């Protein structure tokens, strides 16, 4: 069985923002050593083979312009902690839709609404996640940047295998 495929967009962060996110993740994110901070745009896809997936992700990246984003709040969702965007949300949703067209269509979860986010923690219980989000959220959050590339990875639950990296080279939002 092949590991599920994910499409992620890594965050290019200022040194200060990188340290700020790293401090939260090092204390609360079990995947901190596996992957850098990112938006996940395709989750656990199995319908497309790696070569088909590579061609599709490359095509979407080729028609997508860089996306400006701004993270402005930390929220708890169940036992997870997410940084959420104030800016760039519409463009991230459009990119998510474009990626799930074609070979990933059969993997789209229609029972869960896509909410663009950056995972920064997983706590033992939802109440602990809520308490930490409230505590950390007392300080203003203003982390901004641009997405300029997509990574296709296979993730088996323990190890991430990079399969490809494509820069955005389009003139507008993905269609």
Task: Record keyword descriptors for this entry.
alpha+beta; 4-stranded antiparallel β-sheet
What's the gist of this structure?
The protein is an alpha+beta fold and 175 residues long.
How would you explain this protein's 3D organization?
The protein has 175 residues and is an alpha+beta fold. The chain is built from 4 helices and 8 strands. The protein has helices at residues 15-28, 50-62, 89-100, 126-136, and strands at residues 5-10, 38-45, 67-77, 80-87, 118-122, 143-147, 149-155, 160-167. The longest helix is centred in the N-terminal third of the chain and has 14 residues, at 15-28. The radius of gyration is 16 Å and the shape is globular.
Secondary-structure blueprint:
Layout: E1 5-10, H1 15-28, E2 38-45, H2 50-62, E3 67-77, E4 80-87, H3 89-100, E5 118-122, H4 126-136, E6 143-147, E7 149-155, E8 160-167
Antiparallel strand pairs: 1-2, 1-7, 3-4, 3-6, 4-5, 7-8
Global shape: globular
CATH superfamily: Cyclic phosphodiesterase
Q: Spans of 5+ residues with little confidence (pLDDT < 50)?
A: none
Give the strand tally: 8
Helix content: 25-40%
Helix tally equals 4
CATH class equals Alpha Beta
Could you tell me how far the N terminus lies from the C terminus, measured between alpha carbons in angstroms? 32 Å
């Amino acid at each position: 069985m092949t590991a599920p495929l994910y499409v992620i967009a890594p965050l290019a962060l200022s040194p200060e923002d990188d340290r700020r996110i790293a401090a939260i993740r090092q204390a609360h994110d079990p995947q901190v050593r596996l992957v850098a901070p990112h938006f996940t745009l395709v989750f656990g896809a199995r319908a497309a083979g790696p070569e088909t997936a590579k061609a599709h992700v490359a095509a979407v990246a080729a028609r997508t312009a860089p996306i400006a984003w701004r993270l402005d709040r930390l929220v708890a969702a169940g036992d997870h902690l997410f940084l959420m965007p104030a800016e760039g949300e519409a463009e991230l949703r459009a990119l998510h839709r474009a990626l799930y067209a074609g070979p990933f269509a059969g993997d789209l979860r229609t029972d869960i609404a896509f909410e663009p986010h950056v995972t920064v923690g997983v706590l033992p219980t939802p109440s602990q996640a809520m308490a930490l989000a409230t505590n950390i959220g007392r300080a203003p959050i203003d982390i901004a940047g641009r997405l300029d590339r997509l990574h296709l990875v296979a993730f088996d639950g323990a190890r991430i295998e990079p399969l490809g990296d494509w820069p955005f080279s389009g003139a507008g939002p993905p269609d």
